[in-house]
Amino acid sequence: MTQKDITFVADFLTEHFNEAPELYNRKGKYFNVERVGQYLKDEDDDLVSPPNTEGNQWFNFLKDSTHLKESPLLFPYYPEKSLHFVKRQMEGIIDQCLQKPADVIGKAVHQAVCMSLYKISQSEDSTPRLFKLPFLWNDKTSNLHYVLFTMLENSISKIHILRRHTDTSRSVNNGILAVEFGNFLNNSINEISESRCYSCLDAHFYDDETVTVVLKESVQQEGKERVLAQLPLS
């Protein structure tokens, strides 16, 4: 070690490990621990060297605010406790807040319909991911719920639209349908169908009546064409 290293260590010990007679009647060590490390200890004991909050702008602001001082929306501050203690306190409060909604929502949710989209082999390891996107949309005007998705196996040129009424007791026409893009952008029927075949990269609802899709050419070549299309649901 160099003399500089020894001086650095000596200064550190002098600053942080001085004897503290006022702490003699407390459990544990009789010296100040390193000030950062004390916040990281997973203990419920008070900090040995609590921070000095004098002049803190936030505390002064709360102290001078009649409405915020006793507000139940502000998380209580524990200047004598470590971050682990505060973290446990916050987790407990968050769990308590989420428990009631979870119970209510859980009891209200039930299966409305079941559709078989595809079958997979026994060995799931060798099965590719067949279901892509999906994108959800709720049409509040017509009380309809939509799901857009694509199937990656044999229908890469199709986008599927699942439509359900928000009132599960009611049904809608064409509950699920597929839109095939294929070679619909070809200039004439004489063009080779595979030369301008398109697949769907992404799809979102633009509004209640329009779907926006991003298409790409399926031909394996450089500079594949990309198309942004607006499709009316009608």
TrEMBL record:
Residues 136-234 form the Anaphase-promoting complex subunit 4 C-terminal half WD40 domain. Keywords: Cell cycle, Cell division, Mitosis, Ubl conjugation pathway. One of its GO terms (cellular component) is nuclear periphery. One of its GO terms (biological process) is protein K11-linked ubiquitination. It holds the Pfam family WD40_APC4_C-half. The keyword Kinase does not apply. InterPro entries: APC4 (IPR024789), APC4_C (IPR056358). This is APC4 protein. It comes from Acrocephalus arundinaceus. The lineage of its organism: Eukaryota, Metazoa, Chordata, Craniata, Vertebrata. The gene is Anapc4.
